## 1
Amino acid sequence: NSQRVLMVANLLGMTHPAVVAILGLPGASVNLGDAVNNYLVGQYLRALNIRRVCHELQAIFAGRAPQCNGWTPGGVTTSFTAADIANAQAKLNAIRAFVGEPTDFATGTAGTMMFDVVAAAHLFPEYFWIGNSYSRFIAWGWGEQSAADATVPLSGAMATIFGPSYTNPDRRLQMRGWKTSAQYGVSANPVNIMKIAESIAGSRYNKLPSGAYPDGVGWKHPWKGKTQPKPLNEYSWLKSPGYDTGGGNYQRFEVGPLARMVVNGFYWAGVLNAAGYTITPTYGQMGPNCENGSDALGAALKPIYQLLGNSGGPDLSGVSYNGDSTLDRIAARALETRLMVDMAQHTLNLLNGSIGGDGYGTSGITDPAVPVTTTVKKGYGMTEASRGALSHWVKMKNGKITNYQAVVPTTWNASPRDINGNPGPAEKSLMNNGGVWVADPSQPIEIPRVTHSYDFCIACAVHLITPKGEKIKIDIPALP
């Protein structure tokens, strides 16, 4: 940590506000690395408390959190008063103070989530070229709005970067769509729910030797999906979702905060650079050569890798920055958290003005009609969970459920290879250009750095094994 801080100090200058803030941490003059670790552990503990505050805020209106069971069509089941709204506002203020602003690193305002994430982008800049996936993003959208309430005001640095307000064309707080690039200005494509399907070629389910379903179909829409366990030599219980981008060409897509922010236009390859952080890359910029230090950034990073007992670090000079890296996922998650503060404030303001009445009118959201017959009915629900696009699909006959399938965020990101041999986004991000470079195979901390950027719901149960099957324990030091 101390060597990376000194690297940033050399690149930015000793008088940069963020450098001054880091070097001014308690105990930094004695042991800079220990001071940084102590600060980060303190921030982690603060984050746990803010997480509790977020749950308390939701519980005011939903009865419990985070798995609330109080939502009903058209409202909530909990009665609340003006005092409850004031309580919610106080909690939202506390959340806002911890999250901070995207400009906090530039101003040296330490102690916020935004400062810490941008600091990580400066301390580990090579991770803008590590963990690359397909650069394909899909999101289902959430936050139904009426026409009168569809414009959300932005505050602080968010208003400076993105404008004073925004309105999504489909009247959701976040829109539904997909993109095949994180380049600035690329338009989102509309989602056709009938073009979603799953493969089980790499999954532990009953199929033909070709990887197709027992009826010979390679990809099945969730309404026709089958879940029949039959483990052989596969390596996952997850299915492999895909989206047909045209002509039956099912492609693998990434979901989650980065996907949502890219689809909605709030994040693109180079957004941090556009915000004034010039060490961060622009779209298409080639990566640093940390092996021989042939460029300025590579030269700054090479000595740090040599401290680990290596001749140098990864050579990323052949990797083009595409906005779909380890650091992009982390940065987009933080930026979205800040955006959601404004979204929550907007919703709370509307609630403040409508106690005792509705006033919202009809929804502005429409979806293609679901095909039905007299006896067979189909239904679906699509929204965004914390980890990304979530959909549930039900099929009924004569009043009874005959098939129920769920296509969940971790399934999109952590899924195995499909019938075309294409791996899921997370597996892809460990391979080829922009894949993982491991300094010490006995402590491969670089692998969890990449996989954890997806925030899997199975993160606590992820293990690393060698080809011989031995589990590897990774020690992640915090305090000295």
## 2
Amino acid sequence: MNPAAAAVLAVLTLSPGPGHPVCGRAVYDSAKAAAGGGVFVSDELLPGDEAALRMSEALLTTRAGLSSRGAVFARRHSVPAVAVTGAFWDDGALVVSEPVFGPEQCRDGACWRPRTGSRPRPVREGDALCVDAPGGRVTFVPAESADDRIAAAEAARAFEGLRDAAALERWLTAAASPARAVFLMEELVPRAVDGAASAAELERLRRVALSVAGAQAPRLKAAERAAFARARASAREELAGCAEDAADAASAAVLDRLTSRAAAQAGRVAQTARLLGESDGG
């Protein structure tokens, strides 16, 4: 399995949502968006679009203001929302500026692909997108990986609601797809950091995922490390704001709650780091 490179777009964060990346298919129609599970693409939310936003995995818009209707609605309902700058609308579709990269270059063991320019890319209905609002990025999932990526995202969302690790294990082994195993761990690692999955659940499901991945285990571990690095950076940013919150605490009880929450989050980062074999949870 040699996956195609995914296009990544830098965006402005309007609402961080639950704090981890989410994935879904692009939806323009508000009635379809209200059915749930999609990434709602809209220039400007209308008063009747609140149900569509509330049921969406994320909002992708061109309205960059934090006081825009979409941004306010998204923060109210804890839905990730990002704004694309330098984009335009063409016949009802959002067209973004996609970065273009040259051939891979390597030096002293480090490899990279230099950026050579950009090109217009329409966001089509049904495109698979992963929105990392805290990280300020949107990833276009290659078509050949889209079904597995979206299936893993849907399975992780179901797990988050039911917390049934056995059911998720059965889902993973029923398909026995290395790609699904990789994508599922990309979903679960950030959830372990933010508390939506326990360390025990992550450890159990990781054992199964590594077994299913087989020869693709190195790719799975690399995906885990990348997902953990992003989740750790997001946690550090949140924890950095604790000092300011503590200084403004109205009472000792509020201060205790802030301290407990920060300690719990730091503990989850450290636990996840140990499980993944990372030397420093930060």
## 3
Amino acid sequence: MLWRRERTSGEAPEPVDFALLAWLLATPAWANAKLLFGHSLAAALLGGGLLALTPANDEPLRPARAGLAGLLCGSAIAVEYTAVFAGPAIAIWLVWRERRRWKVLVAAALGTLPPIVGLALYHQAVFGKPWTTGYHRAEHAEFAAIHGRGLLGLQWPSLASVWEHLLSPWGGALVWCPLALLGLLAGVWAARTEPSPSSRARHGLFAAVGLSLFVVLLGLEQGGGWRVGPRYFVLALPLAVPGLVVLTRELAQRERLRGLGFALLLGLFGSSLVFEFLAANWFPHLIPHGNPLGDLLWPLALAGQRVHGLPIWLVGLTTVALVGLVLVRLGRASEHGIGPWLGGLAIAALIVTTQSLGPISEPDAEAELAAIRAIAEPDPEGRSPVSKVLRE
């Protein structure tokens, strides 16, 4: 849906293909999709709902389409509670755009009711009250204490939460999805500068919802658990695609500063692609301490640790072919010479090297790596996995 919408909105195909590939392969979307957690499904539902709210080519929003959008966005909440924080931005945008068409507003509101009511009934049946969640019933003392602060662990951002969700080597957005943040910021700019009213409206909605979810992420006390990058931000990753299309289009034009920006864009894409490829295909559960690249992912890859699924050589060959095709087409469409491409390669190599060698490794990294390899399936030495019977 994103690919079709961006291509039919008048954008050149090359920036669209690059931006879509950056979301799919250069963010934690890759690893999370393979894990079958709810984050990717919630992202698809929320993104589909926002696309339904923004018809292409300045078409008016019909009530039936608004009802479908409400149903999709409400279903995202039923999959992942964090999606509820997209609601205020969507409501403000919708009232501002459709303030004289009450049928559209009513249809959108009614569309959200089936999944929300269903979720409330589930809570009533399982936890005793419509507004009581599983987090309220947590048995683990530390886990219950975290979710007992603020709104289920949501508070004002603190230094600890900003470090965890923005800068940490295992969960920081600037480490694992910098292109998504750039795409959302570019969306804010595009909401003011794009020539088409429908395009400005779409960029404004996507950027407002994505940045709202990012602010919520920074206030989350919850930070533990094995995952790749900021897992509660996976919900917002596809919302950065329209802005990233505009950013790629603008930086591909010939100017000295834009050439530097294009090199930085390529460097971030290349380094993120390496990180996400390693995490998605070897061990998509980063331990929340130490240096996940140097302590975990590179050792597993260099040791030839096999994984379930398609052969790694086939995954790698397919990835290289797809990325190569998109980059070649982007290179032909850009107005720059070879300089920004060499600069991007150097930036990517620098980021990968520095991130792999630092920060300081975890003292117990070797023991943790050995434990992970011992339980990995299939076992590299051909042993059968250990089976244990759990008794009360």
## 4
Amino acid sequence: MKMTIDAMFAKHIMRDYGRDYFTTTALEAIFDYYDEIDDGNTEFDPIAICCEWNEYGDGAALGFSDFVNDYSYLMDGDEDFNDLDDDDKIDTLINEIDARTYIMQLENGNILLAVF
């Protein structure tokens, strides 16, 4: 038996699993991604989603400073990176990561990226 769920219902399930790491906007984007690659046939697995995705920003479990801390190693050797303000560091890291994995800026201003 299959059941179609939306992002709000998924958010409640994830909260029940103790995995309330994502905003509803991020969950909608994740669902859209899976619908696009698998025509809506992906099984909902809250633990797998938490292992495969990170959201950084307001209302997410990880803030923008975590994003810079987690990925600034990609800019090792770029002496100018440390002189940038936080917004420019974020933009630079987004551009660098975009070549490596799926990353997007959400309409709520947060960053969502695949870590698989």
